[in-house]
Amino acid sequence: MSVIQTSYGARVRLVSALIVLLILSSSLSQLRASLSRARQVQPISNFALYQQRFSEVRNLLPRGKVTTYADPLAKLCEPFVLAQYSVVPAILNTRRFECNPTSDIVDPGAPTTNLRLGNSLDAQQEPFLPNLFPEGEAILRSGTQTDLFPGEKLTLIKDTGNGIRLYSSGDGK
Amino acid sequence: MTTFLTLLSVVPPLILGFLVVSLLWPKKERLLTDFWLKGCLSVAVGFGVSSCLTFVWMVAVGQLTRGLFLVELLLILSLSVILARWRKTAGIPAPIDLPRRPLTRKPYWLRAAVAIASISAAVRFVCISIESPNGLFDAFAIWNMRARFLYRGGTDWMHFRYMTWTHPDYPLLIPASIARCWEFSGNETQLIPMTIAFLFTFCLIGFVSLSIARLRGERQGLLAALVLLGTPFLIQHGASQYVDVPLGCLFAASLSLFLLHAESDSSPGFLVLAGITSGLAAWTKNEGILFVAAFFFLQCFLAVFFRKSRGMRVNLIAWMTGCAPIFLLVVLYKALLGGSNDVVSGHNLASSAHQLTEVWRYQMVSQQYVQMFFNFGRWNEKFPMPILLALYVLLLGVRIEKRFVPSAILSVSLPILIMIGYFFTYIFSPHDLRWHVGASLDRLYLQMWPLALIAYFTIVRTPEQALTGEPAAQRDHTPLTGRKNSRELELVSIHD
After folding, report:
1. CB B165 to CB A18 under 8 A?
2. ipTM exceeding 0.95, yes/no
3. What DSSP string describes B364-401?
4. Which listed residue, A138, B113, B367, B452, has the most CB atoms within 10 A of its CB?
5. For A143-166, what is each residue's pLDDT tens digit?
6. Do A103 and B395 lie within an 8 Å CB cutoff?
């Protein structure tokens, strides 16, 4: 009986030790990877640089109202989402939104403006952009500026630099 | 200065949480008894209660202002006075000095392993946070975005409801907590969401470990902590500032508190606290509503089928006392916003009935459920944690005391029932099914993981029991209170 008990106790300890060793080894290898990644972090992230582009225009956009937005990376949702994140509490709407194709992205009952926010993205001017949106690298590097609001008569209100332009449409406010 | 104000801004919710927890903790224990367990719980309860207060303040005043902190201070002072008087009338409890019989040596090596894994996890968390201070996609597309609306939006703070793409119906525990801290520190720093994410992640680990240690002994608690610390996805996802980890923390707190009540002769304070944390789960994310429904259903089931066992109906009322006010707040929030849910809206009975009969949907979701179960934690591919835990239970066996059968049924059924609920959410999903499952199933498993571990470690025999063959009443840890003449139900026992 005691031999069986000893053998059983050894197995319990063995499995416990196995769990502990596996967890610790995986934990330490992840720690090494995390530390090496952290060493490569830039002082100002690409994300922060992208947000800074909107810092001036954010104060010009009406709070809680919808402004129409466009950028050349129509197939990606990240540039739009990051732009929206940057200009809160203004609300952006885009007609080419791939993130949520099943429904409208802005409630039709929302208060709207006649403003248009154009976000031209050019990797030659801002080299960080391809790193931030690698899927759109080809378009970003091509440097060709497409008409972001085709067929609309727009009046430029403010060009805040870095490709951010605020327009009014029609009898814009 | 910013760092100091950031750290200071999270202190009032923690104090508030500690006071609420202490008021509902059993009277017969000293204020600082179970300090770390209460401390971990205070994070979830504190941020939860203060976010509810923030929302009510914003609805009443029209926007987020610093007057909120005066109300918060008054609440803290009032609760402190109530607690002081309450403890005075309760009398000074005698120091708890129950004899402990050291059946085995203290688990020094296990403690050391947990310490190493904790330091490693904390450093990893900080590294990930430095890499992505705004969190990953859902963090800035939903939660931090919402927090910015609350903080920057002035009287138009509720206009985020017009952004139908960003789940406007999602509740506000995390966004309101972040916005509150920004208002307090006067600075929209990313340190706040990072700090809140850090607190929730590590308090989840601490709470699960400490409550299991209290229920089943230190070794079992330390093993649970190791399993959580050894789940890389938990740390990564916590640092990504998604709310699945805070949600998992509230799920775990609810179940642990229920079990702490079930296994003690304490007043229903634990159950009221469990009700509060359940309600706060619904205030964190929509999945919390399913959790509340499942928890409620299982308690009703126990009340009906175990009529003789310890006043299940009284327990249900105590739980509802804590849950109902917060759940009503969630209902009020949803009514005020009038936001639709992407899974429910645009759905009609005919399309639902059609999806219900599509066999391929069941096959696909089932396959994903099985595959994801073994790798959602991003474990070592050769030794995924579920396999190790299966090996462990096969070796040690299962032991449930007969009087704890109802609570064991609840703790095992709860995660299963919720996963069944998620399963049918997928079956009825209006989205592309492959995308929907792929984008969310690992996070749903992560929410359930602490719950499942609590259930697992409370029914698996402890190493002490397995090695000594001693019944549970003679364990080497201090039980909440001992009912020493209980029979035990041995379901599986390889040792015997």
Report:
1. no
2. no
3. HHHHHHHHHHHHTT---SSS-HHHHHHHHHHHH-EEEE
4. B113
5. 666 788 888 889 999 999 888 999
6. no
